[in-house]
Amino acid sequence: MRLWPAVFVAVLFLSPLALHAETPLERGAYLVNSIMACGNCHTPMGPNGPLPGMDLAGGNVFEEKPFTARAPNITQDRETGIGSWTDAQIARAIREGIRPDGTLIGPPMPIELYRGVSDTDLAATVAYLRTVKPVANKIAKSEYRMPLPPAYGPPVVSVPDVPRGDKVKYGAYLAGPLGHCIECHTPMSGPGQRDFANSTGAGGFELRGPWGLAITANITPHRDTGIGKWSDAQVKRAITQAIRADGTPLNPPMGYAYYARMTTADLDALVAYLRSLKPVKNAVR
Length: 285
Ligand code: HEC
Ligand code: HEC
Prior knowledge:
There is one protein chain. The chain is built from 13 helices and nine strands. The protein is α+β, with helices and mostly antiparallel strands. The strands form four sheets. It has a three-stranded antiparallel beta sheet with strand order 3-4-5, with no helix packed on it. A two-stranded antiparallel ribbon has the order 1-2. A two-stranded antiparallel sheet has the order 6-7. The longest helix has 13 residues. The chain starts with a helix and ends in a 9-residue tail after the last helix. The structure holds heme C (2 copies).
């Protein structure tokens, strides 16, 4: 009988909502392995995709005119990864692009957008990275043949969560700070400057890599040059299965296999956001 008050309290707190609330670790695992797709850059790729047993162990090379960047090892290995960094140091590296030794992390790590990752999601990401199996894999330093800025901006003090109830707003958070979709899919307006003011999602950005030359698609709702005529299901199939509306396959380097792990609610929010973009006429293909 004396147990009853405890049971009552347990029932009160284990309401359906509380039962389904993710732990920070679960949230971090979800983010890193789906929308954030860190492994799409940080897990070494072989001819058949990500190398088994090498999750986040680094080594992919990004060869552009102004730089040869090498994705570092971000496993928990203490010597060759980030195992000896504190949680705060890892968080600062992701959201502000500053390593523990004070040096700046260069492109293509999407720091400008990661500055908008919420405090909760950043902590969740770090919690998950802490559980990544250490892999010893020493990666050479990147070479930048251009000046890196002194910083990506003032210190980020705090970023609140974006309410998931507002689909378009949450979709913008998914496509921006978390997924950097709009980084790949927005053309440049000047050196190092994306034209977010006029052409968000208009595509036409060129990416070179082992896949050859990829040109990003226009994902604005423009009916002739964008995805305005595609159904929601067709847009989701493109994002998660790499299949165009006309049934032809899409090419790398978009992280389709990661996005395939997104929840239906998150995919719905992404689509709602893409539909809200200003239609831009830009014939990429
Ligand atoms: C588009 C590719 C890309 C994506 C996506 C990306 N990174 Fe990076 N990241 C890089 C590159 C390249 C560097 C190294 C840049 C340099 O050498 O200055 C880097 C550097 C880092 C570093 C610094 C490590 C060190 O030893 O210097 C950390 C930590 C890191 N990334 C974590 C992450 C996490 C966590 C995610 C996902 C939330 C992520 N990155 C997503 C490309 C990427
Ligand atoms: C690393 C760069 C990159 C990132 C990040 C990226 N994409 Fe893409 N995306 C591409 C490229 C390149 C293509 C075109 C591939 C092709 O033509 O074969 C493409 C194609 C697409 C298409 C198909 C459109 C068409 O007309 O064929 C959609 C839809 C799309 N991306 C949406 C997204 C969304 C949503 C996200 C974020 C969750 C995203 N992309 C993230 C590079 C990227």
